[in-house]
Amino acid sequence: MKYAYIEITERCNFQCPFCPSTQITDPRVEMSEELFTNVLQNLQGNVQEIFFHVLGEPLLHPKFARFLQIAQDFRFPVNLTTNGSLIVQNEQTLLQNSPIRQINFSTHAYAYLSENYREKILQQTILFADKLTHIHPEIYVNFRLWNDQADAASNEWNHIVLQKLQSYFGTNLNLSNFSVRHKSTPITGRIYLHRDSRFEWPDGKAEDSEKGTCHGILDQCAILSDGRVVPCCLDYKGHIVLGKIPENSFDDIFQSPKASQMKNGFIQHKLTEPFCRRCAFAKRFSK
Q1: Would residue 61 count as lying in a domain?
Q2: 243-244: strand order across its sheet
Q3: Which of 1, 145, 186, 216 has the smallest number of Cβ neighbours within 10 A?
Q4: Percentage of residues of the chain with pLDDT beyond 70
Q5: What stretches of the chain adopt beta strand conformation (E)?
């Protein structure tokens, strides 16, 4: 398996209108160091890379630096998805010798913040990316935006971001050739502008379809903050719980009848689970 998405915390300091995190009323859970270590023990030899991401802002976790060290001890490349608001406070941790392979800034989220705050965070992330690429040129950095068809706020914010990036890095970003298959535009080195179509988180309201496939189980899985293992990074509520770490091992979880049925279904372009049949994101792969 290529990726495992690990939700080290459910907490977030943003309230983005497109994110279901704002609808969660239960107490927010943070993964313990013991559970995180157990998760990596199970993933070792089974997964190539890990992501700190499902819901929540990973930089909010009080043991974020410690978790990076543990990941490094297990020799896992780490992909970090963050809103960037705490990048200054964590700069030294990220600039040190760490297992970071890629940092994704959710720049599209800034469109819904106050003008001063969003431009402050954008400037901080740009300065950090520039500093990072000089110290660790091997690390990828993505500034993520929705495409211009998302909504008016995103459209306006996109132009501001483009102007800031072009001005700071002295480059011309030609976005006229954006498509779902051509999402990344190089800025400098391994710093990219990444644009994508806005998607809707699964809410069970999409049209039911038994035909389709997905990267879940085949290429990825997700581990929620309480140790529940689900087939993909969009199943933040745990609609399809395949098992739970540490009660179940990785091998037992993904060799179970349910996991095998889902995997075979995806290979045959059949959606076996109700959650998958009503997932709007999965419909991308049937086009």
Answers
A1: yes
A2: 184-188, 191-196, 140-146, 100-105, 78-82, 49-52, 3-6, 220-223, 228-230, 243-244
A3: 186
A4: 93
A5: 3-6, 49-52, 78-82, 100-105, 140-146, 184-188, 191-196, 220-223, 228-230, 243-244
Residue 243, domain member (yes or no): no
The answer as to whether 238 is a domain residue is no
Distance between CA atoms of residues 153 and 179, nearest Å: 20
β-pairing, 49-52 with 3-6?
Answer: parallel
- Can you give the pLDDT at residue 48? 98
Place of tokens 């030294």: 92
Confidence at residue 237, expressed as pLDDT on a 0 to 100 scale: 92
User: How confident is the model over 216-261, as pLDDT tens digits?
Assistant: 999 999 999 999 999 999 999 999 999 999 999 999 999 999 999 9
Burial of 137 (0-12, 13-18, 19+ CB in 10 A): exposed
Domain with 117, as residue range(s), is 3-196
pLDDT at 69 over 80: yes
Q: What is the pLDDT of residues 145-200, one digit of tens each?
A: 987 665 778 888 999 999 999 999 999 887 665 555 668 899 999 999 998 877 67
Tokens of 136: 């660790």
**Looking at the domain assignment, is residue 180 inside a domain?**
yes
Tell me the CATH number at 165: 3.20.20.70
Specify burial of residue 125 (Cβ count, 10 A radius: 0-12, 13-18, 19+): buried
Determine the Cα–Cα distance for residues 192 and 189; give it in Å rounded to an integer: 8
How many domains does the chain fold into?
A: 1
pLDDT at 187: 95
